[in-house]
Specification:
The chain has about 325 residues and is α+β, with helices and mostly antiparallel strands. It is about 60% helix and about 10% strand. The strands form 2 sheets. Strands 3, 4, 5, 6 and 7 form a 5-stranded antiparallel sheet that branches. Strands 2-1-8 form a 3-stranded antiparallel sheet. The N and C termini lie far apart (about 100 Å).
Length: about 325
């Protein structure tokens, strides 16, 4: 049989089909290789993420690394160091307090070594820092429940007070250098500390009804006993704390605001009630004597005890769960 001669168009179509057929031989293996490459990339990425997570977990919860890099990571990642009454304690808050405390010590006494005594000091500061972070977290929990807040304006006002602490006028730049050199803190970190402290202070005042009752007794007895603070303190016993400076001290003394308040009084005069700048209680000050720069005074303090009692009850009854073990 004579083979039919193909037209030019049919020949062109035949050649086209041959070219496409050759191309298909390479297309499908290439698609398979591409899918395999994507699959392998996903597996490797997941494996790398698992390795990072495991390594991070070991550094945070086993070796308890406190390096700068890990600290910065905890500021971004939602990792916790403990739980207080159902609220997670941020690992970053714990490390911020610990690192600033340790830097202060090392600034004063030199770099700690790796010996047993140095590690004991580190563990002591870790324990205190974790306790503080837990207390701040509990205060934040109570603040949320009671609608207690701290505004940006309050934080700025407190920052400015610290800026000129001790009666020394400082620029913000020089104060931030002090923070960095002595505490290793930035302005944002310091403002975070101020916010937590102010919240805790407000909560302590809010919840301590017993302190309010004792304070009313103090006011009544001060009137009855002609302002004799020692006699008032003796009658109330351990419910209050009585102190005398025993002589002249600097009127810029860092003592919760007592010296500053005393400077505004006349000898024998008793101040109105005020709350300590450290937020630990109500104070009454009686000025004994003063100069232009020094004061001699007596004071009665009505301590805030409810918050500490509640924290102790939580610790004693399993309300605090810690994710790290400090020796």
């Amino acid at each position: 049989m004579t083979k039919k001669k193909l037209t030019e168009k049919e020949q062109l179509e035949e050649r086209r089909e041959k070219v496409l057929a050759k191309g298909r031989k390479f297309k499908y293996p290439l698609q398979y290789a591409k899918h395999k490459l994507v699959f392998n990339t996903i597996i490797i990425t997941l494996f790398a993420i698992v390795l990072v997570v495991v390594a991070g977990w070991l550094m945070l919860y086993k070796t308890q690394t406190t390096s700068e890099v890990l600290y910065r990571a905890t500021q971004v990642l939602p990792v916790s160091v403990a739980n207080v009454d159902g609220k997670e304690v941020k690992y970053s808050d714990y490390l911020m307090i610990y690192r600033s405390s340790l830097q202060t010590v090392e600034q004063q006494s030199g770099k700690l070594g790796d010996d047993e005594d140095a590690n004991a000091v580190r563990n002591e500061y870790k324990r205190a820092s974790l306790d503080n972070a837990e207390e701040y977290t509990y205060a934040m929990k109570l603040a949320e429940e009671r609608g207690i807040t701290v505004s940006d304006e309050e934080i700025a006002e407190e920052f400015n007070k610290h800026l000129n602490m001790g009666g020394v006028e400082r620029s913000e730049e020089s104060f931030l250098k002090i923070l960095h050199d002595n505490f290793g803190m930035t302005k944002n970190e310091y403002e975070r500390m101020l916010k937590m402290s102010l919240l805790k202070y407000k909560v302590m005042v809010e919840i301590d009804e017993n302190a309010e009752k004792i304070d009313k007794k103090v006011q009544k007895l001060l009137q009855e006993k002609g302002g004799d603070m020692a006699a008032v303190a003796e009658e109330l016993g351990e419910a209050v704390q009585y102190e005398e400076t025993g002589g002249l001290v600097d009127n810029k003394n860092i003592d919760g605001g007592r010296a500053t308040t005393a400077q505004t009084l006349k000898p024998g005069e008793i101040s109105e009630r005020f709350i300590s700048t450290s937020g630990d209680g109500y104070y009454y000050i009686k000025l004994i004597s003063k100069t232009d720069t020094q004061v001699n005074y007596a004071s009665i303090k009505v301590p805030f005890a409810k918050f500490d009692e509640d924290m102790k009850n939580l610790r004693d009854n399993g309300g605090v769960r810690e994710y790290i073990t400090i020796e």
